[in-house]
Task: inverse folding
């Protein structure tokens, strides 16, 4: 964002903010009654047995919790920006992990299933998504060129396609392709059906990305190449698309990250990808929470990795353009 | 090139515009234009902004369509059902105000693109031609750079060389120096002057009156979509006929 | 039992989609010919329904239904492959040769019989009433006018709604012993169990489910208690696509054979600890 040259006072160090936060957090903790927590037990010399400390104990614990929170925020407020980001991230991560511990997960069970979840689940998720994004990109190029063309047929078909596939829930497309095609005599297996549904749906969304990318190439490039006697196809292939693609790749990367998670929908037709295994592996021993949390964590880590790659790609193309 | 100069004197016009009008929607931008250009002739077209001068030369390679009258280029009439517009365009070079070089291609690739892709020339042949014209515009050492690594003046010289690689019969210049920093204008005009000396047929939309005086056979003044005045440069500048021409000249020559 | 349920899509929407298309059913002998010529029996079953069918510690399909299917394939003399589509996709029928058979503890209800053929019933499970350990209820009558849970569109829910018909030969008659005040209907019976686990009356006062599933939960530490005698016995059948009488006959004879030789009883004891192949 735009950084001003004048440094304003830090919000988290303003008295009214500190007091306001203290009151709000205190009220919230009081309302949720955290007396019987780790903090309550630490404070037992002051309030006695937390369980029988009554409103007094509840108030003291809530106040202390709020105070700790505010002190923590004020201290982090003094850090330079980078350290601030790191500290807040770490604290939020710690909080999330603490919640995980509250679930009382069986780590040995998770460990026994982790490798299978990666070799079978992550692998399937990744290759289904990767194949789908490639097909979707091809559909999107065709769709975008058709949408930009003067040809009425091409425009009508392309806009019908994008309207239809953006207008239906992806889950429904998965079912229609998996269940509907066999009724017409084409029996497709679960994985091809899933890939088809993902490709068609994302191809429809990406048509708009590709269209915008092609349109963002300046008119002068069209005139320059038309004035030299290039025909439409040649201009598109050699002049316009090579310039549009650097603009298209970053949003396509975002689509891939989104698709990674949407590919979980193909689990309903029995593809053994990450979501399917997260739902089924824990069933025998009623440890489905373990598997769901593991699956969730894997999706998150995958997304973090892909986002890191994505931001490098974006930086690369930004540098190339300037 | 020089053989073209000699045959120019008594051949029929290479460009022939008669009673041509053009509208943008209901707005009439060009009104009843009549103009003949002979092979080897050098025209400078000037006029206030919005006078239709750019539109006029953009009609000549049919980047714009006209609605009334006729335009004949080298015996071919331009109309909306013509089949060979691409072939015609290869014979008309066009230099734009904003260069319109292809930023993803090197200077050399910009120059060889059309000869190779459109004319089917071999790579070595196209490169030889390209280097010849890069020498002509005096930047052969920039051949492997990308357009964005060049100054504006250098880019415009590349654009001129790019058009010349197709060996065109006519060169159209649409305000070629207007987007340049002042110190770069002269290097582009120098190249254009050199080109004029080879006998190339040139139509230049420009406000560079020094160039017009030095190079043009005829100067055309346009206003509100009409050709107001047409004369050889000396007469045009020293003895303008219409009030509007006088006003325009006084405005641009003041500075 | 094996609820329609399982996953988040309702059977309704799937059948709605299907009804858009024309139905093509297998012609006589076609399915059996395909199985024999491919030397492969493709069996559709759930992967999330222990101990009937689930992914075991070695990450392959295992369970009572899986073993039964494997035995059938062995007796046909062909290899076996499992596919695991959504339960609603299996029960919707019109498989078009995608797979040949479902061994999925499917109750042969009238609606399912319209799209599927049930050549053989291979066991029965008791449906039981379950409460949290803290509950004071002692009999079904104590749970009248309480809130009871069951998987959506399962036979258990139909029982609670007093709307259950089981039209299969050999299924014992039953009576409606209980009338709940309201029914908690969730997409999976697992979710219903998780709700009851939260405590007596927290979200629900009791549930109806299959005894094998309930026993599995209790073994895994769910604080549950079964009340009284089974409410009803549910026949569970092997399903195939409609239209191939030869395949139907073949499966019927294989299952009868397995029953007679005691193979089914053994498998039942192996997986449930009890012989469920006959009603008591």
Result:
């Amino acid at each position: 964002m735009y950084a001003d040259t004048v440094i304003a006072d830090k919000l988290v160090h303003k008295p009214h903010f500190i007091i306001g936060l203290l009151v709000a957090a205190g009220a919230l903790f009081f309302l949720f009654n955290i007396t019987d927590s780790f903090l309550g037990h630490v404070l037992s010399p002051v309030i006695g047995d937390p369980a029988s400390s009554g409103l007094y104990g509840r108030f003291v614990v809530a106040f202390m919790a709020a105070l700790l929170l505010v002190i923590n925020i004020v201290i982090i407020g003094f850090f330079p920006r980078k350290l601030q980001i790191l500290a807040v991230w770490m604290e939020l991560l710690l909080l999330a992990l603490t919640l995980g511990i509250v679930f009382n997960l069986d780590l040995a069970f998770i460990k026994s299933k982790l490798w299978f979840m990666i070799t079978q689940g992550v692998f399937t998720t990744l290759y289904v998504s990767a194949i789908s994004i490639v097909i979707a990109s091809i559909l999107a190029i065709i769709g975008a060129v058709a949408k930009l063309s003067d040809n009425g047929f091409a425009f009508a078909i392309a806009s019908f396609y994008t309207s239809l596939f953006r207008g239906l829930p992806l889950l429904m497309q998965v079912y229609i392709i998996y269940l509907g095609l066999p009724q017409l005599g084409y029996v497709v297996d679960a994985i091809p059906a899933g890939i088809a549904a993902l490709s068609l749906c994302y191809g429809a969304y990406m048509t708009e990305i590709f269209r915008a990318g092609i349109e963002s190439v300046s008119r002068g490039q069209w005139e320059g190449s038309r004035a030299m006697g290039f025909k439409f196809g040649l201009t598109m292939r050699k002049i316009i698309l090579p310039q549009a693609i650097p603009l298209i790749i970053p949003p396509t990367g975002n689509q891939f990250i989104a698709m990674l998670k949407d590919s979980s929908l193909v689990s309903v037709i029995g593809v053994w990808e990450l979501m399917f295994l997260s739902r089924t592996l824990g069933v025998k021993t009623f440890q489905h929470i373990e598997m769901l949390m593991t699956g969730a964590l894997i999706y998150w880590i995958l997304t973090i990795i892909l986002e890191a790659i994505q931001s490098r790609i974006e930086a690369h193309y930004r540098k190339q353009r300037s | 090139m020089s053989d073209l100069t000699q045959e120019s004197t008594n051949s029929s016009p290479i460009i022939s515009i008669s009673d041509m009008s053009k509208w943008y929607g209901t707005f009439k931008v060009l009104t009843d234009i009549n103009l003949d250009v002979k092979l080897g002739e050098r025209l400078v077209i000037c006029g206030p902004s919005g006078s239709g001068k750019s539109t006029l030369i953009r009609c000549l390679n049919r980047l714009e369509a006209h609605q009334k009258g006729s335009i004949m280029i080298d015996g071919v009439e331009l109309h909306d059902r013509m089949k060979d517009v691409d072939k015609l365009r290869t014979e008309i070079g066009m230099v734009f105000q904003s260069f319109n070089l292809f930023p993803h291609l090197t200077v050399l690739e910009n120059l060889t693109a059309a000869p190779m892709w459109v004319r089917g020339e071999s790579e070595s042949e196209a490169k030889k031609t390209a280097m010849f014209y890069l020498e002509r515009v005096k930047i052969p050492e920039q051949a492997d750079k990308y357009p964005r690594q060049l100054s504006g003046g250098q880019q415009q010289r590349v654009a001129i060389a790019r058009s010349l690689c197709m060996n065109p019969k006519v060169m159209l210049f649409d305000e070629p120096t207007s987007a340049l920093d002042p110190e770069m204008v002269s290097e582009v005009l120098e190249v254009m002057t050199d080109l004029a000396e080879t006998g190339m047929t040139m139509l230049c939309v420009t406000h560079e009156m020094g160039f017009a005086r030095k190079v043009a056979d005829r100067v055309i003044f346009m206003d509100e979509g009409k050709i107001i005045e047409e004369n050889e440069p000396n007469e045009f500048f020293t003895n303008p006929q219409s009030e509007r021409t006088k006003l325009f000249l006084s405005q641009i020559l003041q500075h | 039992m094996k609820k329609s349920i399982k996953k988040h899509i309702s059977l309704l929407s799937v059948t709605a989609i299907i009804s858009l298309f024309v139905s093509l059913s297998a012609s006589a002998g076609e399915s059996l010919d395909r199985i024999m010529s491919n030397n492969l029996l493709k069996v559709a079953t759930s992967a999330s329904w222990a101990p009937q069918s689930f992914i075991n510690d070695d990450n392959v399909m295992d369970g009572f239904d899986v073993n039964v299917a494997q035995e059938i394939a062995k007796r046909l003399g062909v290899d076996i492959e499992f596919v695991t589509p959504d339960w609603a996709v299996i029960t919707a029928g019109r498989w078009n040769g995608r797979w040949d058979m479902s061994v999925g503890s499917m109750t042969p209800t009238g609606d399912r019989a319209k799209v599927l053929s049930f050549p053989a019933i291979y066991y029965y499970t008791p449906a039981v009433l379950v409460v949290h350990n803290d509950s004071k209820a002692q009999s079904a009558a104590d749970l009248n006018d309480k809130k009871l849970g069951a998987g959506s569109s399962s036979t258990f829910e139909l029982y609670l709604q007093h709307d259950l018909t089981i039209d299969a030969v050999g299924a014992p008659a039953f009576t409606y012993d209980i009338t709940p005040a309201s029914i908690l209907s969730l997409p999976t019976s697992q979710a219903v169990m998780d709700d009851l686990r939260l405590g007596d009356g927290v979200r629900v006062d009791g549930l109806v489910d299959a005894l094998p599933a309930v026993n599995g939960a209790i073994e895994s530490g769910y604080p549950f208690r079964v009340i009284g005698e089974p409410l009803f016995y549910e026949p569970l059948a092997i399903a195939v696509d409609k239209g191939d009488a030869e395949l139907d006959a073949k499966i019927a004879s294989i299952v009868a054979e397995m029953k007679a030789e005691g193979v089914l009883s053994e498998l039942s004891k192996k997986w449930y600890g009890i012989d469920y192949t006959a009603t008591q």
Q: What stands out?
A: Residues 107-148 of chain A form the longest helix (42 residues). The CA atoms of residues 49 and 161 of chain A lie 67 Å apart. Chain A has two domains: 2-91, 107-321.
